[in-house]
Amino acid sequence: MKPGIGDRFQEETKYGRGRLGGGYLDWRARPEPVKRYPDAPRFKLDPPQREGGLPLWEAVGRRRSVREYRNIPMTKAELSQLIWAGQGVTTKISGYELRAAPSAGALYPVETYLFIQNVDGLEKGIYHYSVKEHELELIRQADFRPALAEAALDQEFLAEAAIVFAWTAVFGRSKWKYRERAYRYVYLDAGHIAQNVALAAVALGLGSCQVAALYDDEVNALLGVDGEEESVLYLTSVGRP
Ligand SMILES: Cc1cc2nc3c(=O)[nH]c(=O)nc-3n(C[C@H](O)[C@H](O)[C@H](O)COP(=O)(O)O)c2cc1C
């Protein structure tokens, strides 16, 4: 096969001895690792639980992609736990808030959005996760189920899920340090987050499916992000199997 853009990307973003992409870091320009929606209505999430759930080995052994969900609302406690497992703050060290999933350089380029579709006590709509406060910010209130399934190559099961995570990357956060290699790292970050959510779902007796087959700019338009500085990477549907 003729080398394409992916092959060039792989080659040109390799680290080699004496060939590291970085260099001088302007600490005054260090990007903030969070996005804010200051005017959005806010919803407090339940305090995350650090004990209980299924033991880890059992959760790893039982995880499967689940694409059929019962029409039973998710509780707010379950929602909170899933979000926290993906991107919640788990400790503070020397002023840095570190999260449940690892992130290259602790730069946290991934933003978490949620399509809330069937959760007790929350209206359907698109919400953004406010990491520092462990709160949701309501971006758009409406039933996005058909539009979301269409934007994901007509994968209808997304419309049946209680919630669908949408993770975007704010590329500049990682490019500040890693330049073009950042494009490797944002996808790795997203993978860690998605796996945490997948295991958390199993631990709660829920099922999830990771979805990367999507029309990027259709999902971006739903989320209200520009597709250049910030663009969708990955989705995960969760519901009761
Ligand atoms: C990067 C990635 C993208 C995926 N995209 C989709 C998708 O668009 N639609 C889907 O139904 N499953 C998708 N999956 C789920 C895989 O099909 C599934 O993980 C695989 O068949 C193995 O099955 P298991 O998850 O039950 O172990 C994706 C998984 C990964 C890791």
Main traits of this protein?
NADH Oxidase; alpha+beta; two-stranded antiparallel ribbon; binds flavin mononucleotide; globular; 32% helix; seven-stranded antiparallel β-sheet; 241 residues; 23% strand; 8 helices
Topology of this protein?
Elements: H1 5-12, E1 42-44, H2 56-62, H3 76-87, E2 89-93, E3 96-99, E4 110-116, E5 125-130, E6 135-141, H4 145-151, H5 157-160, E7 163-170, H6 171-178, H7 182-203, E8 207-211, H8 216-223, E9 230-239
Antiparallel strand pairs: 1-6, 2-3, 4-5, 4-7, 5-6, 7-9, 8-9
Helix pairs in contact: 2-7, 3-7, 6-7
Flavin mononucleotide binds at residues 64-65, 67, 155, 209-213.
Account of the protein in words:
The structure is a single chain. By secondary structure, the protein is an alpha+beta fold. The protein has a single domain, classed as NADH Oxidase. 32% of the residues lie in helices and 23% in strands. It is built from eight helices and nine strands. It has helices spanning 5-12, 56-62, 76-87, 145-151, 157-160, 171-178, 182-203, 216-223; strands at residues 42-44, 89-93, 96-99, 110-116, 125-130, 135-141, 163-170, 207-211, 230-239. The protein has a seven-stranded antiparallel sheet, sandwiched between helices. Strands 2-3 form a two-stranded antiparallel ribbon. Helix 2 crosses helix 7 and helix 6 crosses helix 7. It starts with a helix and ends with a strand. Flavin mononucleotide binds at residues 64-65, 67, 155, 209-213.
Question: What is this entry, summarized?
Answer:
The chain is an alpha+beta fold. The protein is built from eight helices and nine strands.
